[in-house]
Amino acid sequence: MLHGLRGHCNSPIAGYCVTDPDGQLNLRGMVFSRDGSRFVHAHDWGELANDPAVLGARVCAELLRQGARTIIEGIPH
């Protein structure tokens, strides 16, 4: 997710992934403006392959669809 968002240590990005009791991955991602006034959120679950890279790419794509790039770059809305 972080790689797809082109994030780094100072990027306002949060990710939280857990493994459910049945072994399925569960990933939440958020991107915030520096002052916290804007944010986007995405949440998805692993599928049959339960591939973390695929899951991260799906959450990343949803965050980008919602405007994460403009938030990360600090572009006013």
Give structural notes.
- This is Porphobilinogen deaminase C-terminal domain-containing protein.
- Pfam families: Porphobil_deamC.
- Residues 1-64 form the Porphobilinogen deaminase C-terminal domain.
- With 77 residues, the protein is of the alpha+beta class.
- It has a single domain, classed as Porphobilinogen deaminase, C-terminal domain (Double Stranded RNA Binding Domain, 2-Layer Sandwich).
- 25% of the residues lie in helices and 29% in strands.
- It has 2 helices and 3 strands, in the order βββαα.
- Strands 1-2-3 form a 3-stranded antiparallel sheet.
- The radius of gyration is 13 Å and the shape is elongated.
- The chain starts with 12 loop residues before the first strand and ends in a 5-residue tail after the last helix.
- 21% of the residues are buried.
- The model has no long low-confidence stretch (mean pLDDT 91).
Provide tags for this entry:
77 residues; alpha+beta; Double Stranded RNA Binding Domain; 3-stranded antiparallel sheet; 2 helices; 29% strand; Porphobilinogen deaminase C-terminal domain-containing protein; Porphobilinogen_deaminase_C; Porphobilinogen_deaminase_C_sf
Q: Helical content, roughly?
A: 10-25%
**Could you say which overall geometry the principal axes of the C-alpha atoms support?**
elongated
Give the H and E element order.
EEEHH
Major sheet: arrangement of strands:
1-2-3
Beginning-to-end CA distance, first to last residue: 23 Å
Q: What is the CATH topology assignment? A: Double Stranded RNA Binding Domain
Uncertain segments of ≥5 residues (pLDDT<50)? none
What percent strand?
25-35%
Number of E-type strands:
3
CATH architecture verdict = 2-Layer Sandwich
Rg value:
13 Å
Average pLDDT: 91
Number of helices: 2
| Main beta sheet strand tally, sense and closure | 3 strands, antiparallel
- CATH class division: Alpha Beta
Protein name: Porphobilinogen deaminase C-terminal domain-containing protein
Domain Porphobilinogen deaminase C-terminal: 1-64
Organism: Streptomyces carpaticus
InterPro entries: Porphobilinogen_deaminase_C, Porphobilinogen_deaminase_C_sf
